Amino acid sequence: MSADSEHLRTAAVEREIRTATGDSERLLLTPIGENLFRVEERSFVTDAVYRDVIRATEIQDSALLFVEIAERSPLVTNSWILSLELIQSDAVQLVLKQVMDQGGNWEQVFGGVLLVHTP
């Protein structure tokens, strides 16, 4: 992880985000302006993906109400369902390291879902 991405992780905070329909989740967000937050991981209750900028307003209990995606990430997100063994294999880990080295990112969720964000 680069020093720049390490700085972003320290600036990011986990916040509860809610939608108008009542769905909610906790997301790692970096505040970047008034009611603007950069998403540092894939959302499952909104269409926001890693590095999108969302607009959200603070509501009760310090939660955020999702308003809109203000700016789309420049990265392309792809996802696959793979076995844990394959995700943890040296070959896949090498590819994921290369993705990170090129300014992308990846996430593993629900055990076998691999999300890859590439430039």
What does this structure look like?
There is one protein chain. The protein has helices at residues 3-11, 84-87, 90-101; strands at residues 13-18, 24-33, 36-39, 53-58, 64-71, 76-81, 105-109, 113-118. The longest helix has 12 residues, at 90-101. Mean pLDDT is 92; it is low at 1-7. A hairpin with a 5-residue loop joins strand 4 and strand 5 (64-71). Helix content is 21%, strand content 43%. The protein has 3 helices and 8 strands. The chain has 119 residues and is an alpha+beta fold. The chain is elongated. Strands 1-2-3-4-5 form a 5-stranded mixed beta barrel. A 3-stranded antiparallel β-sheet has the order 6-8-7, with helices on one face.
Which descriptors apply to this entry?
single chain; 119 residues; alpha+beta; three-stranded antiparallel β-sheet; 21% helix; disordered N terminus
Task: Give the overall form.
Answer: elongated
Number of distinct helices: 3
**Uncertain parts:** 1-7
Order the strands across the largest sheet as they lie in space: 1-2-3-4-5
Counted beta strands: 8
Overall radius of gyration: 15 Å
Question: Which range best describes the helical content: under 10%, 10-25%, 25-40%, 40-55%, 55-70% or over 70%?
Answer: 10-25%
Q: H/E order of the elements?
A: HEEEEEEHHEE
Largest sheet: 5 strands, mixed, barrel
Strand content: 35-45%
Q: What is the typical, i.e. mean, pLDDT?
A: 92
Structural class of the secondary elements? alpha+beta
C-alpha termini separation: 16 Å
